[in-house]
Write a structure and sequence with these properties.
The protein contains seven helices and two strands, in the order H-H-H-H-E-E-H-H-H. The chain is mainly alpha-helical. Strands 1-2 form a two-stranded antiparallel ribbon.
Amino acid sequence: MIGRLALGLTGLAVAAFAQATDGSIFVQRCAVCHLETAKGSPGFVPPLTDTLGYYVAADGGRAYLAQIVTYGLSGPITVAGVPYNATMVLYTPLSDQEAADALNYVLTRFDRKSLPARFDPFTAREVHDARQEKLSALQMHAKRQLLLDELSRIGKHR
């Protein structure tokens, strides 16, 4: 009985993750700027492809990803050699679960090359906890630079 219950709960967890990563939150809320391909618009909106997974491996990287979908980002950045200077604005905040779903979708769909082999999906609780540190979009810019320095130090160049 316990084995069957454990299998049932594991199946529910897998089904819940599959549903959460269907991309509906990303398509509804993020693709307006980043496009459904997550490739963004060169010089205007940065891509979310092939690099965000590296953040997962850096100290503070998971919190940063949860915070960026909360607080946005403002200031000049360079992604894959292309400069961007815009402000990411979140007009309607995502719930903790929506933020986790969007992050999991982007990371597992568009960032597999940069994602660590052992990736634990974001949870609503993890997003909630990361949101306890209140930051401005400009502070997020400074935090990004610290993470890029850490990624360079550990050999995960973007």
